[in-house]
Amino acid sequence: MNCDQARKLLDAYADGELDALNATEVESHIQSCPTCAAALAELQSLHRAMSAGSLYYAAPAALRTRIASAVAAETARPARPPTGDIPVPVARWRLSTAFLAVAACALLAVGLLWLTVWQPSRGVQSAMLDEVIGAHVRSLMAAHLVDIHGPDQHTIKPWFNGKIDFAPDVRNLGPAGFELEGGRLEYLDGRSVAALIYGRLKHHINVFIWPAPDGSSPTPVGEETAISRQGYTIIHWVQAGMNYWAISDIAQPTLVEFVGLLRATPSVQPATR
Amino acid sequence: MGHEEPDAHRGRPDPQGSAARFETAVLPHLDAAYNLARWLMRRSHDAEDIVQEATLRALRSFDGFRGGDARSWLLTIVRNTCYSRMRAERGGETPAEPEQLQAITSTAPAPPAVLERQMDGESLREAIDQLPIDFREALVLREMEGMSYKQIADVTGVAVGTVMSRLSRARGRLKAILLAAPDGGGSR
After folding, report:
1. What per-residue confidence (pLDDT) applies to A78?
2. Backbone dihedral angles phi then psi of residue A200, each to the nearest 5 degrees
3. How confident is the prediction for chain B on average, in pLDDT?
4. Contact: A250, B4; criterion CB under 8 Å
5. Backbone torsions φ then ψ of A228, nearest 5 degrees
6. I want to staple B78 with a disulfide (CB 3.0 to 4.6 A). Which of A107, A162, B32, B54 is the partner?
7. Do A55 and B144 touch (CB under 8 A)?
8. Would you call B28 an interface residue with chain A, using a CB distance cutoff of 8 Å?
9. CA A238, A242, A245, A251 torsion: positive or negative?
10. Average pLDDT over every residue of A262-270
């Protein structure tokens, strides 16, 4: 690969969007080409400057309030056609009635397919996903994100003593760009669990931790289950006898990176017992 | 703690259930919506109007949202709302490119110290503001929202290859603007 070819692929390489083959070729070219290496360093430097967070405009609180009111007002009104070319409600209702029988049969078929084709554990998993999403969203909306503030993991880990019947691993990922914002108690799967909150730019990651049932096999690194639902990425794994559920609205590759770092970082050594 | 019933109202008109689902799926992406609107419109007042209008449009078409990437879906509506507003304001004109920069495509690496100094604070913000809108929106979605090329392609309605090309040219243009800016403006 020569400089011209490498230069054309450099942006995609820096953005992690190149396939493995091309990425490898770009990498080897860079190792022996100072010009392209410098160009890559520039791209990375620009990326750091733009993604640092100071350029990000968060929605003003007053705007959030206005929108919440507008949404409430809009849904309290009786249904009316939106501005545009969508048919009036009455015609729409008749249309739905006509399709109801067909839809019911289709749903039944899909339901049977869902039960037979998917793993039986998916049903349980789906309910768990809803709980995790609900807990995540409520933590963001009610201004109740943390009960104990970070970023010091030596404060957060002992805080859970006496509140839950297990000691979660608390890991600091600040240097990697995932700030430990704090801890919180949550209630999931019928029990009290630990929630650790990490921040990335203006986004939050909730990590829910609680003991896994006896006999649960640990998830090998890199084989965690990643699920996308309602715009959130949720990643689940079992490690050292604990269930882990990480959820965020950051881009899926970033959450995958976070999970990799979390699993690899050495845990806090308890100062005293 | 109650376990809320997910999607129990599918198929029946149920404004309260719809509102709850909308809040859960879409409202968490309000910051992303505002950030994009702010960078596209370049004025906070306009950005607030856009986000309000776009959120209501999203709510009204929420029945047609079949799940999946709610952030991309909302940002597509925000972007379209911005473009409609800009077309209406300018009577159909698209913003002209700064003539003096059209010929400059800075490809050779600059001395690191020079570029780094210009990437501080306001210089970078002003430089991004000067970019043509299609470059600016690609950069914002990539660098600030962390979206993949595919997601950016979905939101901006172009092919992935176009996204890649825009990002590459946007970065070259940004670098040219930064290097052309008067020195010493970067005190934080």
Report:
1. 56
2. -140, 115
3. 81
4. no
5. -110, 125
6. B54
7. yes
8. yes
9. negative
10. 67
CA dihedral A123, A125, A131, A134 (to 10 degrees): -100
Q: Residue B105: pLDDT band by 50, 70, 90 thresholds?
A: low
Where residue B161 falls among pLDDT bands split at 50, 70, 90? very high
Residues 169-188 of chain A whose Cβ lies under 8 A from any Cβ of chain B: 187
Please compute, for residue A120, the number of CA atoms within 13 A of its CA located in the half-sphere on the CB side: 0
HEC assignment per residue over B172-188: HHHHHHHHHCCCCCCCC
Q: Within an 8 Å CB–CB cutoff, is residue B19 touching chain A?
A: yes
Residue type, B133: I
Percent of chain B predicted with pLDDT > 70: 74
The minimal CB distance from B71 to the residues A54, A60, A231 is found for A231
Peptide bond preceding A151 in cis form (omega within 30 of 0)? yes
CA–CA gap between residue B26 and residue B32 (Å, rounded): 11
What are the b/e assignments for A187-221, b being 16+ CB within 10 Å? ebbeeebbbbbbbbbebbbbbbbbbbeeeeeebee
Q: Enumerate the residues of chain A whose CB falls inside 8 A of the CB of residue B15.
A: 75-76, 79
Least confident interval from A10-24, A79-93, A239-253? A79-93
Query: Which of A59, A82, A229 is facing B51, going by the closest CB pair?
Result: A59
CB contact under 8 A, A67 and B51: yes
- Partner B, chain A 18-57, Cβ-Cβ below 8 Å: 35, 38-39, 41-43, 45-47, 49-51, 54-57
Instruction: Give the residue among B94, B109, B126, B116 at the shortest CA–CA distance from B172.
Output: B109
Does A86 have pLDDT greater than 80? no
Nearest Cβ partner of B115 from A42, A54, A59? A42
What is the structure's pLDDT at B8? 45
Q: What is the dihedral of CA A62, A63, A64, A68, to 10 degrees?
A: 100
User: What's the whole-model pTM score?
Assistant: 0.56
> Across the interface, which of A11, A79, A127 has its CB nearest the CB of B167?
A11
Phi-psi sector, B109: left (phi>0), alpha (psi -120 to 50), beta: beta
| Strands lying side by side in the sheet with A179-188 | A148-149, A179-188, A191-200, A203-211, A242-248, A232-239, A225-229
Q: Give yes or no for B155 touching A (CB within 8 A).
A: no
| Interatomic CA distance for residues A254 and A232, integer angstroms | 12
Q: Which of A44-53, B30-39, B81-90, B175-184 has the highest mean pLDDT?
A: B30-39
Reduce the DSSP state of residue B78 to 3 states and report it.
Answer: helix
Give the pLDDT of residue B55.
94
Is the confidence metric ipTM above 0.85 for this complex?
no
- DSSP reduced 3-state for A52: coil
A270/chain B closest Cα distance in angstroms:
32
